[in-house]
């Protein structure tokens, strides 16, 4: 019996090289407070299927909650609703706090459309999330658009801003079950109550919020 089988798809250092729409799982959701006092949830993803299975898409999606004036609050609610509906959250579920929501997002599955956007900080191009959708019936769809200005010998992973690839990732995507939340009770049961945001020392590199107790983790 062999120890393992060589597989070029199961190596460190692989990353998404094309824009497109991808089935993903949320691997992390960090809550922090921006310099102007708004709360922000930054979300990391991992591709679930297709040629980029297991590849991370990180520092590509940040959702900001602005509650004043009223038109900004309306847009904030719509922004977060779009994410939750894509994750399978049912109508009528009440959200009590962004702290609880950030903890409950980990492990949820959805589809995201990503495009290359130029960074104002360094002039380089990184993948950015344009919108959230429900899981695709026919799987992830790369669109063939690679990083503008990239070459075979000079590529960078999507670590956002000035971040370069510094660690490997397992290629096997996690297979957590996306149960969704079909009632207020089931959503509340999945929501820990003691996650607290922390103000990052540098806004472009938010710190991790305090982790809830193991017994309180939603998944």
Summarize the structure.
The protein has 219 residues and is of the alpha+beta class.
Topology:
Layout: E1 20-33, E2 39-47, E3 56-65, H1 70-86, H2 98-105, E4 109-118, E5 125-133, E6 141-142, H3 184-189
Antiparallel strand pairs: 1-2, 1-4, 1-6, 2-3, 4-5
Describe this structure in words.
Mean pLDDT is 79; it is low at 152-156, 159-179 and 193-219. The protein has 3 helices and 6 strands. It has helices at residues 70-86, 98-105, 184-189, and strands at residues 20-33, 39-47, 56-65, 109-118, 125-133, 141-142. Strand 2 and strand 3 (56-65) form a beta hairpin. The protein has one domain (20-148, 162-193).
Helix and strand run: EEEHHEEEH
Tally the structural domains: 1
**Could you tell me the mean pLDDT?**
79
Which blocks of ≥5 consecutive residues have pLDDT under 50?
152-156, 159-179, 193-219
Tell me the strand percentage band: 15-25%
- Distinct helical segment count: 3
């Amino acid at each position: 019996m062999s120890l393992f089988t060589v597989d070029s798809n199961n190596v460190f250092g692989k990353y998404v090289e094309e824009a497109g729409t991808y089935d993903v799982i949320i691997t992390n959701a960090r809550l922090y407070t921006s310099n102007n006092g708004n709360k922000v949830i930054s979300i990391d993803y991992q591709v679930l299927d297709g040629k980029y299975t297991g590849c991370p898409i990180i520092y590509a999606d940040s959702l900001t909650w602005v509650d004043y004036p009223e038109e900004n609050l309306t847009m904030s609610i719509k922004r977060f609703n779009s994410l939750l509906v894509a994750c399978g959250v049912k109508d009528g579920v009440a959200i009590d706090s962004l702290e609880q929501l950030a903890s409950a997002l980990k492990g949820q599955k959805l589809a995201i459309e990503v495009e290359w956007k130029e960074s104002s900080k360094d002039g380089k191009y990184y993948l950015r999330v344009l919108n959230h959708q429900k899981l695709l019936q026919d799987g992830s769809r790369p669109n063939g658009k690679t990083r503008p200005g990239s070459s075979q010998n000079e590529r960078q992973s999507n670590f956002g801003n000035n971040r370069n690839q510094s660690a490997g990732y397992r290629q096997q995507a996690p297979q957590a079950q996306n149960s969704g939340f079909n009632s207020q009770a089931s959503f509340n049961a999945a929501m820990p109550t003691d996650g607290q945001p922390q103000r990052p020392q540098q806004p472009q590199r938010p710190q991790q919020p305090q982790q809830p107790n193991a017994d309180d983790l939603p998944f």
